[in-house]
Design a protein that fits this description.
5-stranded parallel β-sheet; alpha/beta; 13 helices; 5 strands
Length: 250
């Protein structure tokens, strides 16, 4: 089956079936000797589909803009020492919370691994063919300001960031947002409510959020769209940057 003519190869490439062509050419004649056409073709399709799926996942991970693209929930250091609940981490790894449109909050001291966990969760979502995106809160604010200066820019901004199945906002509330950003957050989180999942990585406890969001009805409304039915994970006090600097694995 691997012996196909040049014209057939051209047609396969023209149809965008390069993965199928590669699988055809890679098939070992000795291993498939004696098999019928249907069996051999099924093997080719399986191989081509694995290549296609791998490429799709790699593309999703690349476009997610992860701060730590190597992040992996299966390789976490000092899980017990940091007080991380293995059952909660395993539950998050299944990405069932995305299907339920639940939010996740990673809250802990500076350097406690919040960003790494957020990236690992986004990568896990990509591996399950869910569109994910990582962005720092200061960068989100900057993109919003730039969008406000363009015709239909704010509409396009909200449509883009509302469309991700999983959105990771790192350094959440690092600086108290101004009125324009608060209005954006309310509209964005309203669009994402019951439509997607948002991960918040922050050093601030829930009790501090209302004040940092400016208080009042805007703060009430923003928190109302985040905190109910959210999964809260305390990342502890260990400085994981120091752990990595001393030679430990992640």
């Amino acid at each position: 089956m691997s012996m196909i003519d040049i014209e057939s190869k051209r047609k396969l490439r023209e149809m965008g079936a390069a993965a199928l062509l590669e699988a055809l050419e890679a098939q070992d004649e000795e291993q498939v000797r004696g098999m019928g056409f249907a069996e051999r073709f099924a093997l080719v399709i399986d191989e081509a589909h694995q290549t296609f799926t791998h490429g799709k996942i790699e593309g999703l991970i690349r476009r997610a803009g992860l701060r730590y693209p190597e992040a992996d929930l299966r390789r976490l250091d000092l899980v017990d020492e940091r007080g991380l609940d293995r059952n909660v981490i395993a539950g998050l790894a299944s990405c069932g919370f995305v299907e339920r449109h639940q939010n996740v909050v990673f809250q802990g001291f500076t350097g406690s691994g919040k960003s790494y966990l957020g990236c690992a969760l986004a990568k896990q979502a990509c591996q399950r063919r869910i569109r994910a995106h990582y962005i720092r809160m200061p960068d989100l604010e900057e993109v919003w300001a730039q969008a406000a200066d363009k015709p239909s820019g704010t509409v396009k901004f909200l449509k883009k960031y509302a469309s991700y199945g999983l959105l990771v906002i790192d350094e959440w509330l690092l600086d108290p947002p101004n009125e324009s950003v608060r209005s954006m957050l309310l509209e964005l989180l309203e669009r994402r409510y019951d439509a997607g999942s948002t991960v918040f990585c922050t050093q601030y406890a829930k009790k501090d959020w209302h004040h940092r969001l400016g208080g009042g009805v805007h703060a009430d409304a923003i928190m109302d769209r985040i905190v109910h039915n959210a999964v809260w994970v305390d990342t502890g006090t260990h400085n994981m940057r120091e752990v990595v600097a001393t030679g430990s694995s992640r």
